[in-house]
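Incident log, entry 3
Record: Nitroreductase family protein (215 residues)
Problem: checksum mismatch between cached and fresh output.
Input:
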Amino acid sequence: MTIKPLASDELLTTTRSVRKRLDLTRPVPMDLVRECLDISLQAPTGGNRQGWHWIVVTDTGLRKTIGDYYGRSLRAYYDSGTAAGQLYQDDPVRGATQRRVSDSAAYLGEHMGDVPVLVIGCIAATGGLPPGNQAGLWGSLLPAAWSYMLAARARGLGTAWTTLHLAYESEIAELLGIPADVRQGVLVPTAYYTGDTFKPAARQPLDEVLHVDRW
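Fresh output:
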């Protein structure tokens, strides 16, 4: 597979959540997904436990069922009043961006089951989820999921970080035969993308979020 000649800074700043631009009609070779996941396994993990597991869903029926759960969760999210498009309405520029994000998220919610590959990142949680701050657990999965997304971007694949399926985690676990002591952390739809341009997103200036020594 030919890897796009992206410098590290470009790769890191232009790996965007791809929703409307996912090509729902073009198959994604399993070998390519495996290549991206193999790279993701080089991510750091607490205590070198490597407790991650990856469910790659390509079956049409399973994708449709997961997509139905995701769509149901998305509709509840929009009805909650906390969806992205309802934030920052007092800021014309940022509000417009939020509405675009919300619109693309709604599109993905309608088509999640049509995406050719769904990758669910999981982590072993023997004894259940720990009480209190769970950063130590999820910090052993989420960097690897991001590495997968970066590897996919370099290979012409689009992805999006999603978690709304977790409202139906137990139902999806039963559907896919995921053991009770393995918890899902992220659902990454994966497909070739349409178009060929990505650019850095508008973000808050660093000085608005940077704290040196004290808050």
